Protein: Gfo/Idh/MocA family oxidoreductase
Organism: Gluconacetobacter diazotrophicus
Amino acid sequence: MTKNVSRRTLGIGLIGSGFMGKAHALAFRTVGGVFPLAAEPRLEILADISADKAARAAYELGFARFTAQWERLVLDPAVDIVAITTPNRQHAPMALAAIAAGKHVYCEKPLATSLEDARAMTEAAERAGVVTQVGFNYLRNPMVHTAKEIIASGEIGDIIGFSGQYIAGFMGTPEGSWSWRFQPEEAGGALADIGSHLISMSRYLLGEVASVCAGLDTVYPTRTSSDGQSHRVGIDDQAAILARFQDHPFTATLFTSWVATGREMGLSFDVTGSKGALRFTQERLNELELFKSGQAANRRGFTRLTASPAYPPYGAFTPGAGHQLGFNDLKVIEVRNLIDAVCGVAPAETPFRDALRTAMVMEAVRDSSRTRQWMDVPAQ
Amino acid sequence: MTKNVSRRTLGIGLIGSGFMGKAHALAFRTVGGVFPLAAEPRLEILADISADKAARAAYELGFARFTAQWERLVLDPAVDIVAITTPNRQHAPMALAAIAAGKHVYCEKPLATSLEDARAMTEAAERAGVVTQVGFNYLRNPMVHTAKEIIASGEIGDIIGFSGQYIAGFMGTPEGSWSWRFQPEEAGGALADIGSHLISMSRYLLGEVASVCAGLDTVYPTRTSSDGQSHRVGIDDQAAILARFQDHPFTATLFTSWVATGREMGLSFDVTGSKGALRFTQERLNELELFKSGQAANRRGFTRLTASPAYPPYGAFTPGAGHQLGFNDLKVIEVRNLIDAVCGVAPAETPFRDALRTAMVMEAVRDSSRTRQWMDVPAQ
Amino acid sequence: MTKNVSRRTLGIGLIGSGFMGKAHALAFRTVGGVFPLAAEPRLEILADISADKAARAAYELGFARFTAQWERLVLDPAVDIVAITTPNRQHAPMALAAIAAGKHVYCEKPLATSLEDARAMTEAAERAGVVTQVGFNYLRNPMVHTAKEIIASGEIGDIIGFSGQYIAGFMGTPEGSWSWRFQPEEAGGALADIGSHLISMSRYLLGEVASVCAGLDTVYPTRTSSDGQSHRVGIDDQAAILARFQDHPFTATLFTSWVATGREMGLSFDVTGSKGALRFTQERLNELELFKSGQAANRRGFTRLTASPAYPPYGAFTPGAGHQLGFNDLKVIEVRNLIDAVCGVAPAETPFRDALRTAMVMEAVRDSSRTRQWMDVPAQ
Amino acid sequence: MTKNVSRRTLGIGLIGSGFMGKAHALAFRTVGGVFPLAAEPRLEILADISADKAARAAYELGFARFTAQWERLVLDPAVDIVAITTPNRQHAPMALAAIAAGKHVYCEKPLATSLEDARAMTEAAERAGVVTQVGFNYLRNPMVHTAKEIIASGEIGDIIGFSGQYIAGFMGTPEGSWSWRFQPEEAGGALADIGSHLISMSRYLLGEVASVCAGLDTVYPTRTSSDGQSHRVGIDDQAAILARFQDHPFTATLFTSWVATGREMGLSFDVTGSKGALRFTQERLNELELFKSGQAANRRGFTRLTASPAYPPYGAFTPGAGHQLGFNDLKVIEVRNLIDAVCGVAPAETPFRDALRTAMVMEAVRDSSRTRQWMDVPAQ
């Protein structure tokens, strides 16, 4: 004889079905098999810009229903969590509508296309008391979490140096690349698109940024659309930044570029402490290099730590050391945190408030580049 | 207004809920969101050795029903595919029962604990016309598939050298490690447990093995159980092998060990062709190193290829180049192939027949070590 | 019967016998066996601060004579080239005396402790028509030279990004480390000591620096001497720099530190072109990574070029590809260039004039850090 | 006033001025500046096959005299040490003549082209009481020496696994490559040419080899000479070997090839102990990877040790950690040992007796390949 199993569920409404839409859908599908959860996500409705597109995506990604009108999704009583994976400019209206409807909101980064929007979204969510989370998935990597713990515990002494990069080449070909991403009112360039990950990771590791001095460059001032037409680019292709942190007495270097030929996932950092050091690159996301002082001179060096169940929550994916996590697994960890937060089990790790602080650093970076001055990042 | 979505499904019955049981369950959950499938898996029944264990696992992994009697699962009309992830000795009776019930069978490696069982399982499945697949998941890696294509196409010329290893340290501590895995009637040592992956990968890349000369060693002849009792070990801890392939005129070296201190996932190969070379290690599963002759002397070297949508089916997981797949994703690809085979869309890639050939090589390795002679691998 | 061999020689006078003194001596001993030279160096006189020290060093390093008075060495008629490897503050008086005596001068970096001295030395040498060279040995690496050629030839397109570092940890322990190197009138901190290498390499690869914005930090504001006494540090431990080049339209990041725990030789750069990229680290000085656009998507990646006779003048050291050069070999190449310049065969590659330009960049970096402003680097 | 310096010297007679001839000459020139020596080498006579060639080489490499008759060099009273870098077949007659003249002998590997010659040379040298040394320079690497110490001290427990390779591609193009190296009476193929390094290193690390089972393959059975004529190849291009050591209870794998496309210096080993592991490749000769058990699960991994003064005699070359040694520096260390042995300061590290034992292993490898049997290596 076989017996039945039952579970509590949370209805998911996903808006957008591109790169990140699929990543969200997969994470929601998978998370309940990886982690014990207080409630299991239920793929309730998928919204996209046309009924056809939404129908196909709902079928492919496993949603029960679909719609071409995101406003319906936001209001649907079976939806508990609204996941937003649309172009940047739509984040604000969608999130605000979802918050107004009392839904929890899971939004891709960058939070918004203006600091004002980001602040409005944050304040609305906090007033409404809904759970929010922004998709800074790279912070969810167990190896990055270990880096943070090593820094915070003083294991490598006082932090005395930091370099961070996020370089990638996906915008490296101006021919045929023109899209909404190059218009300043729609998006924010390399700084917003991938630099936001770099800044959020720097803040995650070292705390708040106090001041910045930066140079933003538009390497390709014109780009052509697929029809061959030339367009003037209004955003940055890369940003070079000096940064000082509130709690550390040194100047750090940060660099981000989306025209870095040959690089695919060059999110990396190099942390120096008075008693050790750490190196990480997302290109090898299952590794973290650690140096510790105090070893014999002929037995010391950087030790390559490799992902295993010794680095929670890796073991929830597989008990096999060295078997490795992939990008989608980081999204699963992110979604686990979201559901835990919605169920009241744990705080959300990168709520809108946190993403707002990252946005404030980006604003200071832009101001600094424009004025050619050091800029303080406001405390609030 | 929102619309509903419907799908055809295949009922999955999973026996065993340990390391590989969870990997199977996750793959079945996820696969339909990653790939377009002719039918979506439905997590129907989970069987384990006790009702409690089965109930908990069914709840955690997302199965609709559970049972402590695998014989019921095998006969259940809602089950289309039986997935076997139990200790090695049980593979044969479970698979034979499933085949007898007309079910398709997805079995973990090694196929069986004796060559006779492996042969019987293969022949029964072929007579019954059911689809079978054995879990040689490392072959499903897009980078490994690329290596195979490069070899097969002649892109690196005639193959003139091969070294392969699978070394790991998970059995490296004799204290407290005694289990069924060290009894020859239950299991087959490092050779069967992980060497089977090495041999299947060598065959995948280079074709059939013609003859072998090998030394099997039991590095730790006694091990203690958790109660401190000492037990005599009856199996190999490592195997060093010379191998000749049917289609290649050179002697290869293969080495496998599960007592290799410090290594976690050391499945690697080094292929030399007359016009190029390839290097791979599962420790960095998203990378493949390629050397091609014919470049200028000051512009040549090994090129590090990194996983991206250019290596199908990577793009089904994410359009982001360099974002990386993890171990569980390889299982998703494996399960996709299984479902395609069950639906008649594609042939199974490592059916029982293929696993039987790997078992025949292992048998020749054992014979060679015992007799200290080169042994031919029988053609059939 | 055996026959005799004769050669033309150049007398070498070496001042200082520490780290760099020995490196100079070894290079002069070895160079004639590696390269065909118009004249062979002859180790004529070694000067150090005491007769005992000079005698011992002369014996160990193979000089024919020794002296405790460098002024005698400078005036000795058998000396053709004066090599200066003393503490930074002595470079200027020694070089000026040597120039006044009509000697060619080979001086370690940094050229001087003030911009005025550096300028005076440069102008004196140019007026006197003697050959000068400054020890920026890392530029002599065949792999770095290849990087420069790849950049200059347009092989990787327009240069659109650059990050450079020189981080090392040799000053990372404040206890017992106090020396002349921490007094601003004697030395120039990490920026002068190793940052000068970073700036000279950046200029070597990309041309002149137009403007900089920088933050210099003294990580350890006090250090103790070997007797336990505490001293106030007057120089920088690290420098974070944004830089713009005259011929390139982007902002680069540079970072140098001599308190970078765990790093030994972290001189590295990362160059992005519109059609390719380069990566190098002195930690693996025999390697250079090159990415070229225009390959098939599934056959591209960074290619690891490795030192061989295909990268002149490597072949002068050994015809064996992959055999590798060491640090002292870079000094041999430097000295070859010096002798070629003295013999009129080739121009000196980093004469005082070039080192002066590096010093001008360092001065702008210091000014920028003090004023918290972007600073232009004067054209002359 | 300057003072004079004087020294005791040893006259060097070098036969051959190719690849290794130049390496010897450079080492003899340099060694006295690197190490304090009881006597300094004096480049006395160079012999080569013609007077022209000898004259040019003597001039380029810095010898005082030259000759076209090596017999004169061997008998010259100013010669204390005869260095032999000629084709393999000439090693025996030259060494025997030098020994008969009472000279110390420094001979390149392989010692001879037959085991009988090797034995005769060894016995003649021991009877004559002269110092001998064979050029197994890779053993002189401080990092390899550290590996040996770690193994010998028990720091990584009992040794339970070993894989070694020496693969390179310098014979990978059959067209135009025909030379004396492919005739069995003149040379010994890949096994003798580079496999001798692999075997000597395996013996250096693990002690004597007890038995072997091997397959030798001639990948390219014909090669053409530069005039286009085709020649039948009589030697091996690669060798795959199983080996058991006298003092260790496991089967090791060894592989050597000189047709390994794309590899330049692939001499590497992988040692597993019950409490740790070591990895080394000559491709990065300044690095050694070490794993030690007994660390916390989330702080362990392979540590990359990098060459520095903590690994003697590195510091004699430079006090700068991480500055790196090159191939020629290994020869300098070798020659230091030779001179120390000649001066009675230290025993020679790889005398003829040691090279004879390596030759005996190679003989057993050849016998095993021919008979397809395991072969014992004779104890004497």
In short: Residues 352-371 of chain C form the longest helix (20 residues). Chain C touches chain A through 47 residues (CB under 8 Å). Chain C has a mean pLDDT of 96. DSSP finds ten helices and 18 strands in chain C.
